[in-house]
Specification:
Elements: H1 2-22, H2 30-36, H3 42-46, H4 52-85, H5 96-133, E1 143-152, E2 157-166
């Protein structure tokens, strides 16, 4: 556990160092952000979205834990079933069909966890690239919307007019 925490601390320090190196630039390249995100969170540090880094690592660590746990249970029930089919003495309280069902359930859960891990990793890269595209995007405070009824005299019906002013 201590080794794992030291790896996380090392990764965070590398990300902070990367921030110092990239803080000189004004333009943020989406391609560079995506390439940096090969190391999860580095693209978010490049685009100055520091708050997303713990979320990314939490999601990746959780899904990796789920992959490991489901793989361990899958191998356990698979080996119990194989031992029973090879007439090796086992003290499992489960029947053969229950062992097969448990094995299949944990295999499916492992595959779903792998998909979630991959999706999180890919979304990390996409998020960094989109943030780089929108880094210099500014929203003006002078956005107004006017809603007013309009009566057309010739056609004898009324309608609503919407005006959106962007200054």
């Amino acid at each position: 556990m201590i080794n794992f925490l030291s790896k996380i601390a090392l990764t965070i320090s590398i990300l902070c160092l990367a921030n110092l190196c990239f803080s000189q630039t004004i333009y943020h390249s989406p391609k560079k952000a995506a390439l940096l995100s090969i190391l999860p969170g580095a693209g978010q540090v490049y685009t100055k979205k520091y708050w997303k880094v713990p979320i990314i690592y939490s999601a990746l660590i959780y899904t990796a834990y789920q992959i490991n746990d489901n793989n361990k249970n899958y191998n356990l029930y698979k080996n119990l079933y194989l031992d029973r089919s090879n007439n090796i003495l086992d003290e499992s309280p489960f029947s053969d069909t229950q062992l097969i069902s448990l094995k299949d359930q944990y295999r499916r859960n492992r595959e779903i966890s792998i998909m979630y891990f991959s999706l999180t990793y890919i979304l990390n890269i996409i998020d960094a690239s989109v943030n780089a595209h929108l880094f210099d995007f500014e929203i003006n405070e002078d956005i107004s919307l006017k809603i007013q009824p309009i009566l057309f005299q010739n056609n004898f019906y009324s309608s609503i007019n919407l005006n959106l002013n962007l200054y």
